[in-house]
Design brief:
single chain; 22 helices; 654 residues; alpha/beta
C-alpha cells in the first residue's frame, strides 16, 4: 500500500489549518505530523532551508512548502473531488481575493484574540503548543519552556500586525462586523461561493479555525454571535460537503453574473477593511525596490531566507493611524489575485472589471483600474512558499519599473485533435500584439523551472506558450526524480516511455492547436512565430519550420537530440528546405548528440545555404541551461539566452 501524504505542522497554526482542511475536503489520505516530531528539524528543515510550516511530504518523499502552493499543486495536477478554482473568471477572482483576505487580512483579530485573553486561552494553548512543538514524550517542563518561547515571539509579533492598545477596539469592531456579514451569507449557502468549497474558503478557514474557532475565548464568541460561521468551520474540517442544513442546495456555485447581495456585502467589507493596508504595502514595496535595482526578481532581497519583513508601512484604518510590517508573502498572494484577472480584451476581462468597479471601492488608481484586487507592486519579491519538487516559485515580475512590462499569465486547456493540452501562457500586458514563441519542454516535463524560463522570454516582448506535451498520457510533472536507486531507475524508465509516446506528427498537431489559439488572441501576432526546444524537443522546434512555413521564422534547438538521422523528417533535412533562421546550441558533453556530430551538422547546413548558426558550448553537459539540474552551467546558460533572443530579435521583428 502506498504511504499517505504527511502534513508537517501544528494544530494551532493557521497556515497548517488551510492545508489540512483542503486535504480533508478532497479526500486525500494524509497523516498529521507535529513539527516537534523526530525528523522535522533534522530532515525537513534542512531541505526546506528554514523552520516553517506547513510542509507536505508526498508519498515519494518530495516536500511542498506553504498552504497556498500545496493547494495549487494539486489543482494543477487535476482530478480533485472539488476543484478549488471556479471556472468563471469573475468567481475565480473573488475566490483568490478571499484567499488573500482570509490568510492575511484576518491576522489582526487572530493574533489579538489568541494572545490578549490569557485567563481564558492560556490553559488550552499552553498545552496545545507544547503538544505540537515539543518532542513527543518530552517532560512537562520542556513543554512549558517550548510554549513560553513561542508565546514570547508571537506577542512581540503582534505589534507588526497592527495590534496595539489603541487599535484593539477597532479590531474587535471590525471582526464582529465580519462575523455578522459572513453569518448572514451562510444563511443561504453552505460555502463562500455556493455549494462547494473553493480556494476562498481555504483562505478563510486558516484563521477562523486555528485561532478564532479553536482558542477558547474567540471560539465562544463565534458560537454565541455567529453560529452559522461556527458550523461552516466545522463543515470545512469534515469529509464530504456536510451540508444537510441546505437540502435544496447542490454543489453548484453562485451565478457569476448575479452574485448574491450578501457576497457583495462581504466584498465591500474587504474593500473598506483591507484595501488601505494593501495600498500602503504596495507603495512601500515600490519605493523599497526602487532603491534596490540589483535585486533579482523572485527573491526577497533579505540576507536570511527566513526573514519575512522588508519594512513597515503606516496607513489610516477605520479613522486611526496604524503601522504594520510589509511582508513579501502578502504580495505573493496579491499576485495570485492579479493572475486570475483575464488579459485585457480576453474572455471574461470586462465582466471581472465591471464586478470590481461596482463594489463600494469605486475610486480608481493612476492606471484607470478599480482598486479591489488590483493594487500591485512594481516587481516581484520572494514568497514564503517553496516547493522542492518544482523549485522556488517566482512570486511575480510585472514591473511598473521603466523597461519592465506588466506581465499577464494564464494556465489553461487548449483543445487539440487528441484532447485538451494544458498550456502555460505569459506575455506583456501592453504594446501588443506580440510575436508568438512556442516553448517546447524537455523530457522531465512541465515544472516551475520551465515556467520561469517562459517568463524570461516573455519579459522582452513575446507571447510565450508552454504546452504540456504529455497530456495524452495524463502526466503533467515528473521532476524532481527520487534519489533512491530503484525509484530513480523507475522514474527514468517512465520518462523514456513518455518520450517514446511522442512523434513529430503528434507534436506538430499540438503546435497547430497552439497557433490556432494564438490566432484568436488579440495579444498575439501568430504571423511571426519563433520556437525553442530543449533536449527531446530540440528536433521538434526545428521541424515546426517545415510544418508551418512562412509563420515560423526562427527556431532554436538547445542540446537537442537526434538532429541528423536517416529519417525523411530529420531536423537537418527540414532546415535545408526552410527559409527560417536557426540556432543550434550543442553541449560538448552529450551522448544524445555526440561532439563529433556537431561539425557535421554545421557543414551540412552551410553547404545547403541554410540561415543557421551551430555552436558548441565547451565543457558544458546535456542539460546545462536548467538551474535545477546538476549539469547547470551559469555562463553557458546565459550565453544561450543571448543567442536565442538575438535570433528572435533578428527574425521576428515586424
Amino acid at each position: 500500500m502506498t504511504a499517505p501524504y504527511r502534513l508537517h505542522g501544528t494544530p494551532g497554526s493557521l497556515y497548517t489549518a488551510k492545508a489540512r482542511s483542503f486535504l480533508i475536503k478532497q479526500g486525500i489520505p494524509f497523516e498529521n505530523v507535529p513539527a516537534g516530531a523526530p525528523g522535522f528539524r533534522e530532515r525537513v528543515v534542512p531541505a526546506v532551508g528554514r523552520w516553517i510550516i506547513p510542509v507536505l511530504e508526498t508519498p515519494d518523499g518530495a516536500l511542498i512548502q506553504d498552504g497556498s502552493e500545496i493547494i495549487d499543486r494539486f489543482e494543477r495536477q487535476g482530478g480533485l473531488r472539488w476543484p478549488t478554482l471556479p471556472e468563471t473568471p469573475v468567481l475565480r477572482v473573488v475566490a483568490r481575493l478571499f484567499e488573500l483576505f482570509g490568510g492575511e487580512g484576518l491576522l489582526r483579530p487572530a493574533m489579538h484574540y489568541r494572545w490578549n485573553f490569557d485567563a481564558v486561552n492560556q490553559p488550552f494553548i499552553g498545552r496545545d503548543f507544547a503538544a505540537g512543538l515539543a518532542p513527543p514524550g518530552a517532560p512537562a517542563a520542556e513543554g512549558e519552556a517550548t510554549f513560553a518561547f513561542a508565546a514570547e515571539r508571537m506577542r512581540r509579533a503582534m505589534a507588526g500586525f497592527g495590534v496595539s492598545p489603541e487599535s484593539i477596539p477597532l479590531i474587535e469592531a471590525a471582526y464582529e462586523e465580519f462575523l455578522d456579514l459572513f453569518d448572514s451569507h451562510l444563511a443561504a449557502f453552505p460555502y463562500l461561493l455556493g455549494g462547494r468549497p473553493t480556494v476562498g474558503d481555504y483562505g478563510l478557514i486558516g484563521p477562523l479555525y486555528a485561532h478564532l474557532g479553536r482558542d477558547p475565548y474567540p471560539a465562544d464568541l463565534m458560537k454565541r454571535r455567529a453560529y452559522r460561521v461556527w458550523r461552516w468551520v466545522e463543515r470545512m474540517n469534515a469529509g464530504g460537503l456536510d451540508a444537510a442544513e441546505y437540502p435544496d442546495h447542490g454543489p453548484d456555485l453562485v451565478d457569476a453574473e448575479v452574485p448574491p447581495p450578501t457576497l457583495e456585502a462581504l466584498m465591500a467589507f474587504i474593500a473598506r477593511d483591507y484595501l488601505p493596508e494593501l495600498r500602503a504595502m504596495v507603495a512601500f514595496a515600490d519605493g523599497w525596490l526602487a532603491e534596490r535595482p540589483e535585486i533579482e526578481p523572485g527573491t526577497s532581497g533579505l540576507k536570511r531566507p527566513g526573514d519575512r519583513v522588508i519594512g513597515q508601512a503606516t496607513f489610516d484604518w477605520r479613522g486611526a493611524p496604524i503601522t504594520v510590517n510589509v511582508m513579501p508573502y502578502r504580495l505573493y498572494l496579491l499576485q495570485k489575485v492579479q493572475d486570475a484577472i483575464p488579459a485585457a480584451g480576453g474572455p471574461g476581462h470586462d465582466a471581472v472589471m465591471a464586478m470590481l468597479a461596482r463594489r463600494p471601492c469605486r475610486d480608481r488608481d493612476a492606471h484607470g483600474a478599480p482598486p479591489c484586487g488590483t493594487a500591485r507592486p512594481s516587481r516581484g519579491l520572494g514568497s514564503r512558499s517553496r516547493d522542492l519538487r518544482l523549485g522556488p516559485r517566482l512570486a511575480y515580475d510585472d514591473g511598473r519599473r521603466p523597461g519592465r512590462p506588466v506581465m499577464i499569465e494564464r494556465q489553461l486547456d487548449i483543445a487539440t485533435p487528441h484532447g485538451a493540452c494544458t498550456t502555460f501562457i505569459v506575455h506583456p500586458e501592453r504594446e501588443g500584439p506580440h510575436p508568438v514563441v512556442l516553448f517546447l519542454m524537455d523530457a522531465p516535463a512541465i515544472r516551475e523551472e520551465l515556467r520561469d524560463m517562459a517568463r524570461r522570454l516573455a519579459s522582452v516582448g513575446y507571447y510565450v506558450m508552454l504546452p504540456n506535451l504529455y497530456y495524452r498520457s495524463g502526466v503533467m510533472e515528473l521532476w524532481p526524480f527520487p534519489t533512491e536507486a530503484a525509484a530513480l531507475e523507475a522514474a527514468r524508465e517512465r520518462m523514456f516511455e513518455l518520450m517514446g509516446s511522442l512523434s513529430p506528427a503528434l507534436v506538430m498537431s499540438d503546435c497547430a492547436a497552439m497557433l490556432a489559439f494564438a490566432d484568436a488572441d488579440d495579444a498575439a501576432d501568430a504571423t511571426r512565430v519563433g520556437t525553442v526546444g530543449y533536449c527531446m524537443s530540440g528536433p521538434y522546434a526545428i521541424q515546426t519550420a517545415g510544418a508551418f512555413p512562412g509563420r515560423v521564422r526562427a527556431a532554436a534547438s538547445i542540446h537537442g537530440v537526434s538532429l541528423m538521422t536517416e529519417a525523411a523528417d530529420s531536423p537537418h533535412l527540414i532546415a535545408r528546405g526552410s527559409g527560417a533562421g536557426f540556432y543550434f546550441g550543442c553541449a560538448q558533453i552529450d551522448r544524445w548528440f555526440p561532439e563529433e556530430m556537431i561539425p557535421r551538422l554545421a557543414a551540412d547546413l552551410a553547404a545547403h545555404g541554410v540561415d543557421a548558426e551551430v555552436e558548441t558550448y565547451p565543457g558544458a553537459e546535456h542539460g546545462f541551461v536548467f538551474p535545477q539540474r546538476p549539469a547547470y552551467d551559469r555562463a553557458s546558460a546565459e550565453r544561450h539566452w543571448e543567442r536565442v533572443l538575438s535570433l528572435f530579435r533578428r527574425k521576428l521583428s515586424a
